[in-house]
Amino acid sequence: MNDEYDGKNAVITGGSSGIGLATAKLLVDAGARVVITGRSRATLDAAAKELGDNATAVMSDVSSLSDLDGLAARVRDELGTLDALFVNAGVTTAAPLESTTEEMFDTSFAVNVKGAFFTVQKLAPLLRTGAGVVLTTSAANVMGLAGTSVYAAGKAALRSMARTLSGELLPRGIRVNAISPGPVDTGTLERTMTEEAAERFKAERVADNPMHRFGTPEEIAGAMAFLAFDATYTTGSEFVVDGGSTQL
Ligand SMILES: NC(=O)c1ccc[n+]([C@@H]2O[C@H](COP(=O)([O-])OP(=O)(O)OC[C@H]3O[C@@H](n4cnc5c(N)ncnc54)[C@H](OP(=O)(O)O)[C@@H]3O)[C@@H](O)[C@H]2O)c1
Q1: CA 150, CA 146: separation in Å to the nearest integer?
Q2: Which of 34, 39, 213 maximizes ligand 1 atoms within 8 Å of its Cβ, making it the mutation to test the pocket?
C-alpha cells in the first residue's frame, strides 16, 4: 500500500481480469478509486471482492452504446470526475484467413474498435484537465503473425485513434496514449482457441521473444499507470511493453 494515487479516480474497461484487473489492483493499492467493467457478473463480483471498497464493478458491454451511456451515468454518480480512463476491454480473434467468419470479424471490430471509440466519446465529458486516456493496442498491430489479421487490423485502427483523439482532446488538457503489450499470459488465448492451439501459439511466442518469456499483467499495469498519470509531456504515442519482440 502507498498513497501515490490518493484522491485519483479511474475507469478501467475490461477491469475484471488479466491486465485490467492488475491495473485496478495497482491503482487501488496506491489510494485511487476505480470503476471496473466487464460483461460477466460472476467475474466482476470476484474482482470487486478482491479489490475491496475503493472499487465499483459495473456490468457494461463496450460494444453497446446504451451500456456505455449507463456506465457514464454511473461513473458520474460514483466518482464525479475522472483522472484516468483505461480503454482496455478487448477480445482476441485468432483464425486463418479461410476460416475467419463474418461474425468473428464483426465481434472483433465491435469490441476492439467501435467499443473503444465510443468508450472515449461517452466518458470524455467526465475527464478533468490533466487527465490521461490509455488505449490498449497490441504488438500484433505492427507484426505479420499468421492467424491474427482481424485482431491486428483492429488494434492498428486503435493505434491510429490514439493520435487523432489526442489532437481532439489536447485543447482540454487531456492526453491520449496507447500501450502496446506483447504476449501476456492472462488466459485470453485459451478462451479463444483450442488448448492445443493455444499451447503451440504460446510456445512460438516464447521462442520468438528476445526475453524468451511472456510479460506479466503487473508489468503492463505499471506502464499503463505511468502513461495515465506520470507521462505529462507525452500524447498521441504508443508505449511498447513486449520484451523487445517488435524492436530487436
Ligand atoms: N494478453 C495478451 O497477450 C495481450 C497482448 C496484447 C494486447 N492485449 C490486450 O489487452 C487487453 C486486455 O487483455 P487481457 O489479456 O487482460 O484479456 P482478458 O484477461 O481476457 O480480459 C479482458 C477483459 O475485457 C473484458 N471484456 C471483453 N469483452 C468486453 C466487452 N464487450 N465489454 C466490456 N468488457 C469486455 C473481459 O470481461 P468479460 O469477458 O466478462 O466481458 C475482461 O475483463 C485487451 O484489449 C487485449 O486485446 C492482450
Answers
A1: 11
A2: 39
Q: Which three cell numbers stand for residue 219?
A: 508489468
> Of residues 86, 109, 118, 151, which has the active-site annotation?
151
Distance from the Cα of residue 202 to its chain's centroid = 20
Atom of ligand 1 nearest to the CA of 140: 6
Residue 239 three-state SS: strand
CA nearest 17: which of 39, 33, 1? Answer: 39
Beta bridge partners of 180: 240
Q: What is the pLDDT of residues 39-78, one digit of tens each?
A: 999 999 999 999 999 999 999 999 999 999 999 999 999 9
Span 219-246, pLDDT tens digits: 999 999 999 999 999 999 999 999 999 9
Q: Is the pTM of this model over 0.90?
A: yes
Strand partners, 37: 58
User: Residue 122 carries which side chain, given as an amino acid letter?
Assistant: K
Q: What is the dihedral of CA 78, 111, 63, 9, to 10 degrees?
A: 10
Residue 179, classed as helix, strand or coil, is strand
- What residues are in contact with ligand 1 under a 6 Å CB criterion? 13-14, 16-20, 37-40, 43, 61-63, 88-92, 111, 115, 136, 138, 181, 183-184, 186-188
Of residues 91, 85, 87, the one with CA closest to residue 34? 85
State the Cα–Cα distance between residues 145 and 172, nearest whole angstrom. 38
Instruction: Determine the pLDDT at residue 192.
Output: 78
**What pairing do the DSSP bridges indicate for beta strands 127-136 and 9-12?**
unpaired
Q: Using an 8 Å Cβ cutoff, are 161 and 44 in contact? A: no
